[in-house]
Amino acid sequence: MTASASGIPLPAVAGDDLVAPGLSDRVGRPGEFPYTRGIRPTMYRERPWTIRQLAGFGTAQDTNARYRMLLDNGSTGINGVFDYPSLRAFDSDEPRARADVGRGGVAVDVRDDFDDLFKAIPLDSVSVSLVSSQPIGAVAHLAMYLRSAERQGFARTSLAGTSQNDFLMETAITIAPEALPPAGSFRLACDLADFALREVPRWNPVSVSGYNYREAGADATFEMALCLAHGQAVARELIGRGHDPDRVLSRISFFLNAHNDFFEEVAKYRALRRMWATWVRDELGVTSPRAQAFRYHVQTSGVTNAARHAHVNIARSALQGLAAVCGGTQSLHLNGYDEAVCIPSEHAAMTALRTQYVLLHETGVAKVADPLGGSHLVEYLTDSLEARAAELVAVIDDIGGVVAATEQGWVHAELARTAFADQKAIEDGTSLVVGVNTQLEGDDEQPMLFEIPDDTLERQVARLELVRSRRSEVGPALKAVAQACRDGVNVMPAVLAAVDADVTLGELGLVFRDELGRWEFPLW
Amino acid sequence: MGVPAVVTALQGRKAIVAKLGMDAHWRGAIVVSNALKEAGMEVVYLGHATAQDLVSAVAQEDPALLGLSTLSGNHLTECEAVMAALRDAGLDDVAVVVGGSIPAQDHDRLKSFGVDQVFGVGSPLTTIVTNIADLIA
Question: Per the database record, which ranges form the Methylmalonyl-CoA mutase alpha/beta chain catalytic domain (chain A) (predicted)?
Answer without folding.
Answer: 15-517
